[in-house]
Amino acid sequence: MDHQPKFFENLSGTGKAIGVLTSGGDAQGMNAAVRAVVRMGIYVKAKVYFVYEGYQGMVDGGDNIVEVSWESVSSILQVGGTVIGSARCKSFRTREGRLQAAYNLVQRGITNLCVIGGDGSLTGANLFREEWSGLLEELAQKGKIDEEAVKKYAYLNIVGMVGSIDNDFCGTDMTIGTDSALHRIIEVVDAIMTTAQSHQRTFVLEVMGRHCGYLALVSALACGADWVFIPEYPPEEGWEDTMCVKLSENRARKKRLNIIIVAEGAIDCHNKPITSEKVKDLVVQRLGFDTRVTILGHVQRGGTPSAFDRILASRMGVEAVLALLEATPATPACVVSLSGNQAVRLPLMECVQMTQEVQKAMDEGRFVEAVRLRGRSFENNLNTYKLLSHKKPDAELPKTNFNVAVLNVGAPAAGMNAAVRAAVRVGITEGHKMFAVIDGFEGFARGKIKEISWGDVGGWTGQGGSILGTKRTLPAKYLEKIADQMRTNNINALMVIGGFEAYLGLLELSAAREKYDEFCVPMVMVPATVSNNVPGSDFSIGADTALNTITDTCDRIKQSASGTKRRVFIIETMGGYCGYLANMGALAAGADAAYIFEEQFDIRELQANVEHLTEKMKTSIQRGLVLRNENCNENYTTDFIYQLYSEEGKGVFDCRKNVLGHMQQGGAPSPFDRNFGTKISAKAMQWISKKLKETYRKGKVFANTDDSVCLLGMRRRNLVFQPVAELKTETDFVHRIPKEQWWLKLRPLMKILAKYKTSYDVSDSGQLEHVAMHSPKEAETGAI
């Protein structure tokens, strides 16, 4: 699909006025969205207004609707909540209220609204848009505005962004704030696990989410909870007995703690509420376990937004302005949202109707339908949780007589252990014998391989690093020894979790198939590296955790200069030759520049950046941030850039430098990496089972085709298996990066938000799509 890139330079906002408001419950990342709307709006020469206190401010008018400048949104990116305030507004629900709001907007010439809120706020916005011309007519009749104004401001355009920690809006995979809320929940669960372990306790955790079980479900997946209660999937009749049996079995297996997660809207199959207190009383009465309840409450809405939410909100904010510029009286009000890794526009009312359908299905007891309506992502989470949390009795498990080995290769990445756990448990469920290889290919050659059971991987999801141990060594020099080990242990399939070395390793093993029959078995790779430099996948396990570390550190570094004189920080990130961490870190931390290998730069560009910063520092802006990928240029080192900025900025700002180093590889995995690692690895294991069945002939497994050595990667909206042989042409082996990388399209976004003139290819955005109702079949194929 080769189309000419379409740039937004020809979309001008001159003469347009955009109002931005946040409404309903607050969510982390709303400020990032507000900042992006304001800066993109000003960039395309539109006027941008803050509407303070949501719809209430729109109705009250006056100082609540204020034109803003570039600097107005400086330093709000890392702040949780919403700086322009949000309120529930009764008067906007009346026609009088909306009449007053319309009058206030017309007074300032605002006919474009960007609304950041939940389904209630967006439905209100849509009604306002439908009534707009009628409201203006009424204002003219009352003599409040003239006929000229009625003609001039005849149409109101509306674009919504969903800001809600509940992730309860159909049509988008993630709403702004969800990822940050998961961060808060997981921080608490990790902390509770240590105390529960000490005392052999059971903890019942209640999480938010109103009528949606997303937060409960994903946090249960991310911490390996023993049981989860969500409104969309009520437990079957007699669940009390089943749960108690499960908890006592876990205790008998030497598990010292039990975690039960309850969504605040949890119900049983008769639509009766299941409360955390009720669950606690049940455990105490039946089992006598020491049980505590923790209700997380508003902690989940608080704190700083995660890197994912900042990037999501920034992308959506820019997309919202583009949608407003392109809107015509004929286009319906739309929401900008995320599908997989792609920004999409969807008709607002279709999403709202589908969201209401879910509630209706739940009220009527059609729970299977409710789960399906929630979307592919929700359904996959639920299926994966069911697969991994309950071990069937041995008698009920199939026996395939296949042996499958799992190993980690390359540098450690947070989330590897979650991937190993999922692989082992899915493998056992499918009837295979699972083997763990210690210390990568090197350990494999030395025979460091042992059978691993369901219980062995308990509690692994939240552990950072690699418990199996990992090495960068490639298999080429150990081929004979590895083949021996495969024969001795009768290994019928391999699952490799790792980075670029894992990819090279699989290429070497498949090339050695001519010589060694032992390698003629299905092999699959799951990408796990902080650098995110594996061809064939938009994301790799571990990159999100590293990105959060970089973002948190940048926040702290920026704060260290508050109250001092003007200061610029030069920060070096990891990533080999891949600029992903530097580029996305810059977007998430609000940096002024990011130097990366993929986009060559020279002394003139460095000079321009310094001048740009100097100009900025002459305004009210006090701090600058510059990120540099470790290998972006062998001569323009971090020291060189630091010295250049120090010299050129004399008298305006001073400089400090920081090399982040190995802290980027450490730490507990983020919710995204736990979840992504778990789901992608479970899917890879199911592929192995399928391939084993296909290639089993005359009592042995024999697979020697290209499509039996695959990499499972996330591509735009889907998870796809790609033969490693076919990925060769997409790889720059010298610099260990893919030849084409999706995130380079976000480079201009960072530059626009840092006040540079640039061109931004918008061919990908644009067309209004319809909310897809997926078939159950689709849930098994591509979606994450």
Automatic annotation (TrEMBL):
Family: Belongs to the phosphofructokinase type A (PFKA) family. ATP-dependent PFK group I subfamily. Eukaryotic two domain clade "E" sub-subfamily. Belongs to the phosphofructokinase type A (PFKA) family. ATP-dependent PFK group I subfamily. Eukaryotic two domain clade 'E' sub-subfamily.
Organism superkingdom: Eukaryota
Identification of the protein by name: ATP-dependent 6-phosphofructokinase
Annotated binding of Mg(2+), by residue: 119
Binding residues for beta-D-fructose 2,6-bisphosphate: 472, 529-533, 567, 574-576, 630, 656, 662-665, 736
Protein's pathway: Carbohydrate degradation; glycolysis; D-glyceraldehyde 3-phosphate and glycerone phosphate from D-glucose: step 3/4
Inhibition and activation profile: Allosterically activated by ADP, AMP, or fructose 2,6-bisphosphate, and allosterically inhibited by ATP or citrate.
Binding site for substrate: 164-166, 201, 208-210, 264, 292, 298-301
Entries under PROSITE patterns matching the protein: PHOSPHOFRUCTOKINASE
Region (C-terminal regulatory PFK domain 2) residue spans: 403-784
GO BP term, example: fructose 6-phosphate metabolic process
Source species of the chain: Strigops habroptila (Kakapo)
EC number annotated for this UniProt entry: 2.7.1.11
Functional description taken from the UniProt entry: Catalyzes the phosphorylation of D-fructose 6-phosphate to fructose 1,6-bisphosphate by ATP, the first committing step of glycolysis.
Cellular localisation: Cytoplasm
Keyword Metal-binding: yes
Domain Phosphofructokinase, residue spans: 18-323, 403-688
Active site: 166
SUPFAM superfamilies xref list: Phosphofructokinase
Subunit structure: Homo- and heterotetramers.
Catalytic activity line of the entry: beta-D-fructose 6-phosphate + ATP = beta-D-fructose 1,6-bisphosphate + ADP + H(+)
